[in-house]
Amino acid sequence: MTMDHLTDEQKQVLTMIRDFVRKDIEPIASEMEQKDIYPHDLVNKMKALGLFGMSISEKYGGMGLNYSTYALVIAEISRGWMSMAGVLNSHLIMAKLVENYGTEEQKNRYLPKMATGEKRGGIGLTEPNCGSDVAAIETYAVRDGDDYVINGTKMMITNGEQGNTFAVLVKTDRQIKPQHRGISCFILEKGPGFKSGRHLDKLGYRGVDTSELIFENHHTPITNLVGGKEGEGFKQMMDGLEGGRINVAARAVGVATAAFEKAIAYAQKRHTMGVPIAQHQAIQLKLADMYTKLEASKLLVANAAAKKDRGERCDLEAGMAKLFASEACAEIALDAMRIHGGYGYFKEYPVERYYRDAPLMIIGEGTSEIQKLVIARNLLQKFKSV
Questions:
Q1: Segments forming the whole domain that contains residue 208
Q2: Would 2 be classed as within a structural domain?
Q3: Rounded Cα gap, residues 325 and 249, in angstroms
């Protein structure tokens, strides 16, 4: 990605991130990803760089980056190793949720420690019997004096093992209709009655931990109810997912960028029939399609981030960016593998990692099918007949 049209602050931040990716991430990414080793040293370096506070306001000790800059940073990190962006994403969704909806006491208690990475975690939505239908969650909380007692299981939680603090959706009213009105969000810290469950072995997105979260009569004080009011959790989390979808779309841009760069470099070095394969029209057609999809993805992400920066609802724009960029990433990764031929199938070359990582962006933060429904609902409202 070029530095054209960026602000001085963005150029400075991206220069720092590119140096970090080149010097620290790229040399070890393939080995650690293949062995599914959690990158403790890289996480500590990200703490030192302030990345766990990227989007947290300076008032609470963060960097205060806007979404446009944040998306650029995530794309650069994902270009080196997408899993590292995963360590940050759900953590920063939680931080923004607390900053936007938490009480002032909650903000002061959690955000400064989240900015340094001392408090680190993510969000708890998905359950064994519930994915896209968030309103159908079964984890519940019952009031007990000045506490709530929480029971249930969350599934497929990024940072579930290494994280210690999570924004978790639970039912505080299991009878109310519609169901989403009975959902509340709590800030929960690991301790008695709250632990991580089994480690989930994945096709891609390796190195970062994904696990269950298990709640067995976990007591949490009423002061950990986000905003201090029941029934607001669904709205709070859906707003947070707008930023999460921008993140996932930016990750897709990063992986697609890496796949394209590797493909076009290989196509100019590999010879068949006496010429570089880049001189064959079949390869040129692939490269043209790949780059066009990549550039379109960048523009959709930038548009969604800019609208979020203006304080406007961007579920339509974030949904379009996430849908297009994630699907384009999968197509670009596959074409990169095809351009590499047999070599693209071997772990010696990173294109096989891009191919395995790409499906995560299609599924994470709402599947492509869910994004299409979100887009359609917004379009019907936007172009509503009089």
A1: 121-231
A2: no
A3: 5
CATH of the domain at 181: 2.40.110.10
Tell the residue number behind the tokens 């780059």, with chain if given.
291
Is 161 an active-site residue? no
| Catalytic pick among 58, 216, 365, 369 | 365
Cα 122 from chain centre? 10
Q: What is the DSSP letter of 201?
A: P
3-state helix, strand, coil in the chain (%, to 5): 60, 15, 25
Q: By three-state DSSP, how is residue 312 classified?
A: coil
> 279-289 in b/e burial notation, b at 16+ Cβ within 10 A?
eeeebeebbee
Overall pTM surpassing 0.90 (yes/no): yes
What is the block-wise mean pLDDT of the chain (386 residues), using blocks of 10 residues? 78 96 97 96 97 97 97 98 95 96 98 97 93 91 98 97 98 95 98 96 96 98 98 94 94 98 98 96 98 98 97 95 98 98 96 98 94 96 83
224 close to 166: Cβ distance less than 8 angstroms: no
pLDDT at residue 121, as a whole number: 87
Would you call the peptide bond into 178 cis, given omega within 30 degrees of 0 as the criterion? yes
